[in-house]
TrEMBL record:
InterPro entries: FAD/NAD-bd_sf, GMC_OxRdtase, GMC_OxRdtase_N, GMC_OxRtase_C
Family assignment from sequence similarity: Belongs to the GMC oxidoreductase family.
Organism in which the protein naturally occurs: Actinomycetospora rhizophila
Name of the protein described by the UniProt record: GMC family oxidoreductase
Record key words, sorted: FAD, Flavoprotein
Top-level taxon of origin: Bacteria
Domain Glucose-methanol-choline oxidoreductase N-terminal, residue spans: 248-262
Signal peptide bounds: none
């Protein structure tokens, strides 16, 4: 059967596109999702439904290439309907005006903050903040805990931040200076509001919309410079009037390259026939580098608090137009519940509970790549995160660790902690940057591998309308098109990209 529109990937962007583009009943739409398609909230596994942690039971299992110290870092990506919006920590922080300005500066008109603010407002259902910046009745439901509902360590972190002179920010999703704030979350009554729940499920009964779960796309079929369909790993071919790739930062460039669209030299090495030489495919991989600053914590009285409720943003680099560091304090969590890939278990722990500061540089200068291991879709892409390959990034993450340490040592937070476990009290301030380099981690916010830009930019893959340069009827709509990384968790920005692109693609 042929479809007017085939969307490859039922993730953060794909479910949004399915909703918006199937609203025209005369357009037949097929969504192809590699992971399982759970048809309702009642069908979801408990860990996918619950918003307390980031589950890893539905994952692609990708691991990045080893760095200079031999560290091979896991790169979790949700392999399930809703994609990584079904497996994330639910932070619902918008890209900042400075982030959108950077996109426009790179030749992408129409993506400035004032241009997309109507989309942010229209997509949002949020009870707080000024009407100028927020929507109340949109599809994307966001909540925020009150100061009275914070976990003890989160509340104590806020008080410690005030003692240290950091400003209190009332609305992190409105323009304004950085500081300590309550974190808006895409969670309602403890249920993660994935794009599958928010966007796809309400329109599943549309006769012109079909979803196929458990199917992987091998490549886009191109004939005469025009996308005409897709081929699945099974060999089945599906005809399409238009193909939209929404497979994510790692899989979208892999599909493009298997289709013969990408760097000519790399494709020639693999024996893939060249359809379109686009050198930027798989380049510009950008990720927020993170260190887990872990402190043993006293057991809390209430063990049901969400892991994340607050965020501290800091402008450390005076040349940056906005903040460039994050310090995210968690609730006290059982040590046994933390992922062993990032927090190796210990034989003896003073309390069995930990509080973590996720400290990050949110405007990194390092870049990585995504390449193919072979022409086969059965082989995972070769992912080089490039963390700390630019000399400026590790010192900035080290500065964020220093800020976290000052918070941990300030009353009343200091009374709830019993000592630093990582990087550990033996690592002094002058050794922090080296310790950061040797313990690479990331926010799981990768983007940029099919970046947006004008056709005159040799590294651009899609135009500001998200259509692939030089290939008719082929578009990319996911985090891979972001030309620069926003200084926030990327999931809300990915949803915004899909909302805005859906209007352009209509």
């Amino acid at each position: 059967m042929a479809y007017d529109l085939v969307i490859v990937g039922g993730g953060s962007a794909g479910c949004v596109l399915a909703n918006r583009l199937s609203a025209d009943g005369d357009r037949s739409v097929l969504v192809i999702e590699a992971g399982p398609d759970y048809l309702s909230q009642a069908d979801l596994p408990e860990d996918i439904a619950g918003a307390a942690y980031a589950p890893q039971t539905h994952d692609w299992g990708y691991t990045a290439e080893p760095d200079a110290f031999g560290n091979a870092v896991a790169v979790p990506r949700g392999k399930v309907i809703g994609g990584s919006s079904s497996t994330n920590y639910c932070f619902a922080m918008r890209a900042r005006p400075a982030d959108h300005a950077a996109w426009v500066e790179r030749g992408n008109p129409g993506w400035g903050y004032d241009d997309v603010l109507p989309d942010y407002r229209a997509m949002e259902s949020f009870a707080h903040g000024n009407d100028e910046f927020h929507g109340r009745t949109g599809t994307y439901r966001i909540t925020r805990d009150s100061w009275e509902d914070l976990a003890p360590t989160a509340a104590a972190s806020a008080k410690a931040a005030a003692v240290l002179g950091y400003a209190d920010v009332d609305d992190v999703n409105a323009p304004g200076p950085p500081g300590f704030s309550l974190a808006p979350l895409s969670a309602v009554d403890g249920i993660r509001q994935s794009t599958a729940l928010a966007y796809l499920n309400p329109v599943r009964d549309r006769e012109n919309l079909r979803v196929r779960g458990g199917e992987e796309v091998d490549r886009v079929l191109v004939d005469g410079g025009r996308a005409v369909g897709v081929r699945l790993r099974s060999g089945e071919e599906i005809a399409a009037g238009t193909v939209i790739l929404a497979a994510g930062t790692y899989n979208t460039p892999a599909i493009l390259m298997r289709s013969g669209i990408g760097p000519a030299g790399h494709l020639a090495e693999l024996g893939i026939d060249l359809v379109r030489d686009l050198p930027g495919v798989g380049q510009n991989l950008t990720e927020h580098p993170v260190m887990w600053n872990i402190h043993a914590a006293r057991p809390p009285d209430d063990t049901q608090a969400p892991m994340f409720q607050t965020a501290l943003s800091v402008r450390h680099d005076p040349a940056d137009p906005d903040y460039d560091l994050h310090v995210l304090p968690t609730a006290a969590v059982p040590t046994a519940a933390l992922p062993e890939a990032f927090v190796p278990p210990v034989s003896e722990h003073p309390t069995g509970w930990d509080m973590i500061f996720f400290v990050a540089c949110v405007q990194p200068r390092s870049r990585g790549t995504v390449r193919l291991a072979s022409p086969s879709a059965a082989d995972a892409p070769v992912i080089d995160l490039g963390l700390y390959t630019h000399p400026d990034d590790a010192p900035r993450v080290a500065e964020a660790v220093r800020i976290a340490r000052r918070l941990a040592g300030t009353s009343p937070l200091s009374e709830l902690l019993v000592g630093e476990r990582a990087p550990g009290p033996g690592v002094g301030d002058d050794e922090l940057a080296d310790a950061v380099r040797r313990a690479p981690s990331h926010y799981n916010h990768a983007c940029g591998t099919a970046r947006m830009g004008p056709a005159s930019d040799p590294e651009a893959v899609v135009g500001s309308d998200c259509r692939v340069h030089g290939i008719d009827r082929l578009a990319v709509v996911d985090a891979s098109v972001m030309p620069t990384i926003p200084r926030v968790p990327t999931n809300p920005t990915t949803i915004l990209v899909a909302e805005h692109a859906a209007k352009l693609l209509r």
